[in-house]
Target: Hydrogenase expression/formation protein HypE
Amino acid sequence: MRREPTGGAGEPAVDMNGWVCPMPLRDSPTIVMGHGGGGAMSGELIEHLFLPAFGAAADAGLGDSAVVTIGGARLAFSTDSFVVKPLVFPGGSIGDLAVNGTVNDLAMSGARPMVLSTAFILEEGTALAEIAHVAEAVGTAALAAEVTLVTGDTKVVDAGHGDGIFINTAGIGVIDDGVDIRPQRARPGDVVLVSGDIGVHGIAVMSCREGLEFGTTVCSDTAPLHGLVAAMLATGADIHVLRDPTRGGVAATLNEIAGVAKVGVSLTERKLPVPAAVRDACGLLGLDPMYVANEGKLIAFVAPEDADRVLAAMRAHPLGAKAEIIGVCVAEHPGMVVARTALGGTRVVDLPAGEQLPRIC
Model:
């Protein structure tokens, strides 16, 4: 927080316009960055503004994708917007992030992604070469994810009213019979797994944005996860919940699941796969890796009798080679996530208010 000197007569008055609050006020009458962070403030915005405004027209399932039945087919439908800054970062760009993000939202319902829409909001003055680079990344990522870009839109806003390129994508996928994956199915006894190293994407974007160096380049983990999900489903295991821990990281995702299912989650902190570069960067920046965003990882809640074969299937896939069991679902402390520390104590892992690192997707 910054302010001008103040005191007795003749000294300058406090300049309120220069103040910056690191934790946005929860009762703010205007939108603040915390409302877009995927934490408690995002949830409050949806619950107290959008859902009442939409009224009976809204289906309040509130998952990463909606599951609808049309003509006898079960479909997953999702939409997402991407405003990451900078547009290009180590390991990816806003283009492949847009495709992979929507593909992953569909995959978290157990769907096979099929088609995507793409809408570009371009700022006047943005170089055509930069737009072409991002568009090519979209096409390359779509081919890699085996989805077709079937429709789209382009809009231009005045110079100074955007950040070069914003992208909205929407996607549709097909869900096979017998697949029922949703947060409400989490239950005590479930084993909690994560598919690999956490916190990588957020640190990659922050290091590029702020020009930070950590002795090694941290590259984003952005990747399409539907192949990994297919391998997990092929085991025949009873997979209850899948989520990709993007904004708000592992902590926000686990809190959301615990809250929806009204169960507790108990983590073993030393089992969380945090790469050394991410741990060092978080230590330098004062961040907790559990709250840092990911773009190519998933969390799974699996029936205990199926946990070992699901873990083996994950580790056999390139995107799950570092998968770990990180905790269990419990009946105690419903709606709360608790971590057992390396020293033998416990700590509550709260839902973040906003986002430690804004504009990361």
Notes: The chain has two domains: 61-175, 183-348.
